[in-house]
Amino acid sequence: MAFGCWLGVFVLLSVWPSVRCSDLPRGAIETACRDRYLLVTTQLSFAGNEPRFEAVDADGVHSITKQYGSECGYMFTILPLPGHAELRASYFSCHTDNQDDEVFTFSFNLITTAASGVGNTYTVNATCSLPLPWSPREVSCEENYMEVSMRSDVSCLSGTTTDAWTAALATAHSSATSTWQLMFQQEGQQLIPMSLSEARELGYVFHLTQGRLVFRSPYTPRSVMGSVSMVNGSVVEVVHPILFSRQRWVVMMVDWIVACSTNEGMYDGVGLVWQTPTLLSPLVSGLSGLEISKISMGVDGQLLDKPITAERGYSMDISDTTVQISIPFNAAGGYRKSFVMDNMYHEFYVVRLYYEQTFLDDCGVETRLRLHRPMITPILIQHLSIINQTVLEDRVFTVYLGNLSYDVDLVAVKLNGHNFTILEYSTEGRLQFSLDINYTLVILPQEEPYYYLASVVAQFNDVFPPVFKGVCNDKSISFQMVHKPFDYLWEVGVGPYLLTTNLADKRGYIMRNDSKSLTLEVPLFTVGYTYKDINLKQFYGSFEIHSRLPKTLDVKSSLSKACLFQTTEVIVCSTKGVVTVVTDVTLAIPGAEPNRTFLLDSTCRPQETDDTRALFSFGLHTCGTRVQVDHQHVTYENEINIEHKSQSVKAPVKTRDTASVMTVRCVYPLSDLYKLFAYWQFEADSPGVGTILTRVPVKIFQPTYPPTTLATTRRPLTSTTTSNTGLSPGRDMPGIQPRAKYVKVFSWQMNQPTGTT
Length: 757
What we know:
Strand content: over 45%
Radius of gyration: 42 Å
Number of helices: 6
Shape: extended
């Protein structure tokens, strides 16, 4: 017996577990209300067993099998796409809640089998309102059944010859009772009355709604009372039931004929061709004055207008006898499916044709015919081709392989006899861990050393940087990122800084980070915003957040979210040396008129005004702006002044015709400025800190001594500003106090040393 020992080296690769948000992925089941049916589409993985549907109503659960679907108005099919299936349910299907033929409510169970073998059940509910009014008679030719519905008050005979109707009338008179009976008219066959329950056992369904009579029949061979004939080169199936009953001395008869073209189409080497009679004679025989009003085509249950059909290359030729529709191979609206046989590439092409026709009979009664028909090419051998676009000057081979369908992926190539997988061409989204191991062994008893080298590699695909979603709020922007297993490979940044809890607290961000997601709410006017298009009504504020590599700081993904905010009071000190300010001047001088304001340079007037506010935008070296430099900051300051209205006075006295309303100030860190003194050109690394300071109204004191010594004295008002105003501590500002509740800070904290936040 040979036996030995294994020496193992284990390295832990730490990953975050993926989070399963829901048992049913978004968009996996979708519903859509069409003209006369509900469409349910699925995009779920089928583990060998096909999914199935159940109809649910007050009586219980009803499994929709192939036979039951043809009897009750359901068509279920698996599309030639992985995981795609669809169910079409007639508005008159058996278990649909019908409210006055106007509102239809559906309830289904979808049952699938997971890879583990466990069955999953999903509930599907939908309500549809009638999109367009019912025609007096409507015929629906589905893939697995025929359905006709008629308005209950239609009295004109259609589709019945005189001899046939006379024979049916004689049979009805001889055998009619007060109970409704049924007979099927077939050429050369005797009319045999039967009960509705007997007809139901044969697969035929009759029912009466609020205002319509409905009949549904499966196709042959189960439709034993139907017939198949050739009409203008097309196969047509016909079922002709007549419903009758005796009511006292009157025999009531309802002629219920339905006919559908069952051609499946053909492939002519270029595309798919389908043909149908221009007039289905069983529906219109004996009607000389028939008028065709409209013929339309489409795909997947939706009609298309002529410009779209022409763009896709569809064509429809209408003659007196036939309608022929052609759809080119691989045209939009169809599906290509690939597979391999004997190492040969094959594929087929499928189009789900939708056809609609309306016509009027001699009585002016409209009939609307709708038809669903899948058309499939035969299995086609596709010979692939090579396109060589190599440019010698580039010294690079460029070779393309085609023509391939969307369901084909390239996984490997062999170049000059050497195999290469697709991962060796593109590293995007690929993470690789490698470990080189050197084992040192000794052979006993000599203790002779032996070395063995080994290398192991672990690869992960689809590893991409975190993706953020941004949402605009009234006074903030919110960002959200759902955590994925490899998010630890990247770090989240705001500008040049790493987003941490400490940074968020300093700047006033609201950050929540747990095992599932990271949420960051950025209030307006906090550090990192940029602004544009400022006016008195609104402005745009944008904020950018990104993912980057920790070592190189290379940004791999970013999201800049711009939102529209309402303007109240704003000051922006830009990196280009432009100040934009919106302020309410009536807070300083009640009743002041904003359109009479100006800056230290009286020619600098507001760009916009309303009843209370003024908007100024000016350069820091214009409009009389004052500048002060200390060892850390550069402070720019201007004043908003207002003209007084002239008033007539009896005695000449000295008056001030202007008054300073407020001071506008921008402070920039000196270390962030460059080119300022060499070229007198303003340019900064980051926006400045802006403040608006309101001048306090001056109170006038009246003297109490005689008029000969009359005088007024102003009470001196001073405020010692702090570093928050951008001036050196201890600088006196007579008559000015900061409006703390209106101070807006737009950039980095100016008191922090360079390189901090």
